[in-house]
Amino acid sequence: MPHADTLTVVHHDDTRTRFQNVRYRLHRDGIRIWTADGEHLVTDVLMTEAYRQRAQD
After folding, report:
1. Cβ(47)–Cβ(6) under 8 Å?
2. Over 60: is that where the pLDDT of 57 sits?
3. Which residue ranges make up each domain of the chain?
4. Nearest Cα to 51, choosing from 20, 30, 26?
5. How far apart (Å, rounded) are the C-alpha atoms in residues 7 and 27?
């Protein structure tokens, strides 16, 4: 399951929902997101943008 420091969900009406420090799973009906606040299911998804910063070696 992928991890993202910042996950932005772009909805069909071009609004955006941003999540911090999450795990997520894309599926046919949308995206399931796990945060410290609990689990979220977003079904109105046009696009996602996930960023993860890694420590430099």
Report:
1. no
2. no
3. 3-51
4. 20
5. 16
pTM to 2 decimal places: 0.85
pLDDT of residue 7: 97
Tens of pLDDT, residue by residue over 2-43, are 999 999 999 999 999 999 999 999 999 999 999 999 999 999
- At 51, phi and psi to the nearest 5? -125, 140
Structure tokens at 6: 């910042």
Task: Please give the angle made by the CA atoms of 41, 42 and 46, to the nearest 5 degrees.
Answer: 155
What DSSP string describes 11-55? -TTS-EEEEEEEEEEEETTEEEEEETTEEEEE---SEEEEE----
Q: Which two tokens stand for residue 3?
A: 């991890």
